[in-house]
Amino acid sequence: MTIPTRHAVVTGATQGIGLEAAKALLHMGWQVTLVGRNSSALATVSANLKQPDRVTTRVADLSLLRQTRKLGDDLLQAAQPIHALINNAGAYFNPRQLTTEGVEATWALNHLSPFGLTQTVEPLLRAAATPDNPARVVVVSSNAHTMAKKPPRDDLEFAIGYKAMQAYARSKLANIWFVREQANRWAQTGNPAITINAVHPGIVGTRFFRGNGFFGWFWRTLLDRVAISPAQGAQGLLRLATDPSLAAVTGKYFSQITEKEPAPLAKDAFLAQQVWQASDKRWREVTA
Ligand SMILES: NC(=O)c1ccc[n+]([C@@H]2O[C@H](COP(=O)([O-])OP(=O)(O)OC[C@H]3O[C@@H](n4cnc5c(N)ncnc54)[C@H](OP(=O)(O)O)[C@@H]3O)[C@@H](O)[C@H]2O)c1
Question: Does the active-site annotation cover 253?
Answer without folding.
Answer: no
